[in-house]
Amino acid sequence: MEGKNMDLVSVEKCSSYDAEKIAAIVESQFVLFESAGPIFREGASVVIKPNLLLGRKPEEATTVHPYLVGAIIRAVKKRGGIPLIAESPSGPYTERILKSVYSVTGMEGIAVKEGARLNYDTESINVPAKGSGSTAVFHLLKPIVKADAVICAGKVKTHTQMVYTGAVKNLFGTVPGLEKPEFHSRFPEKEHFASMIVDLCETVHPVLSFLDGITGMEGNGPSGGKPVGLGLLFAGKNPYAVDAAVLSKIGFSIDRVPVLREAEKRKLWEGPELSGSGKDEPPVPFQYPDSTGVDPTEKIPVIHNLVSALFSPHPVIVKKICIGCGKCSESCPRHTIQISGGKAVIIRSGCIKCFCCQEVCPQKAIWISGLLAGHENKTDPIK
């Protein structure tokens, strides 16, 4: 990833989900980034990797808006590419779940309208990992491995474990289904997990990354936070630079985002250099997740380890809201969640605080508690 153009990030103002305006912006961003040459060859198979964490409607701000994906489809087809939408949402990687998620998130409708295929092939392939050596092999979705080019279509959101999720973290969805919790189990420490995510990004190597920041999510994202208007669309060749540009517009420090810290340490991006109508827009400060509370003992390792074990932010089931669906148990890397009496129960001694349970809960029935939590929810959860 060398060269100044790789760190150029387009930031365009867009205050609403107007399909034609978004299409015009995305087309202009393609033109900007192909000034040094074609992004992919004519006839290339181009996989668009959207953020479809859960089967939620676009207005809930959990998933990328279909109009952005539709605009990317148009631009790809205009250049002779063959677009395919492929994603592995939370939970099992099955055709039935894919059909449901594509339908609810609006991907099915936009694929029909713009003339793109949806991936239902649930095979996966081992590929050698690139990067730091956190893992030797990644087991990835077959269409991702077979594609001539991958385009990331993410959503600007906070993240209870990794603080922020955008272009780079979106690529975790190239890992099939319930293999994602296995990575959380293998890399329970944030720094190690971040290193793995950067290796994954280096392996998938998207040719372009777009981020839907028209409406983002703040607080306890990527699914339990609150929608907030940012009014910006981001794009760039370097996914790390794109994420860094977003952080500058939501008031987040790179030092608090493990994935960007790791990428910066490896010198995978410089800048970013912003261009476009939104480059000088002032930041819209997003609220950090409750899981990012400040620990005053952090620089005293012996005390910090004890305090962290006892008082650090951790997930808590709000039993009045829990419906006992079992999705949290299914996603738990260490299998520390059980369903008892029609409600989820967390065995805290085995919890690694990855917050996968909070991420996938369809009822938002999992809150973050602990004396060191940020406490976005000012009242204690009703257990």
Give a topology summary.
Layout: E1 8-13, H1 19-33, E2 45-50, H2 66-78, E3 82-85, H3 95-104, H4 107-114, E4 117-118, E5 124-128, E6 137-141, H5 142-146, E7 149-159, E8 163-165, H6 167-170, H7 179-186, H8 190-204, E9 208-218, E10 226-236, H9 239-250, H10 258-265, E11 273-275, H11 301-311, E12 314-317, H12 327-331, E13 337-340, E14 343-346, H13 356-360, E15 366-369
Parallel strand pairs: 1-11, 2-3, 2-7, 3-4, 7-9
Antiparallel strand pairs: 1-10, 5-6, 7-8, 9-10, 12-15, 13-14
The main pleated sheet reads as: 9 strands, mixed
**SSE pattern, N- to C-terminal:** EHEHEHHEEEHEEHHHEEHHEHEHEEHE
Please state the structural category.
Answer: alpha/beta
User: What gross morphology would you assign?
Assistant: globular
**Unreliable spans:** 1-5, 375-383
CATH superfamily of the largest domain: LarA, N-terminal domain
Q: What is the strand content?
A: 15-25%
Number of strands: 15
Helix content: 25-40%
Q: What is the alpha-carbon Rg in Å? A: 20 Å
- For this structure, the CATH topology of the largest domain is Rossmann fold
Supply the number of structural domains.
2
Q: In the CATH classification, which architecture of the largest domain applies?
A: 3-Layer(aba) Sandwich
The total count of helices amounts to 13
Give the averaged pLDDT, no decimals: 92
The top level CATH class name of the largest domain = Alpha Beta
Span between termini: 49 Å
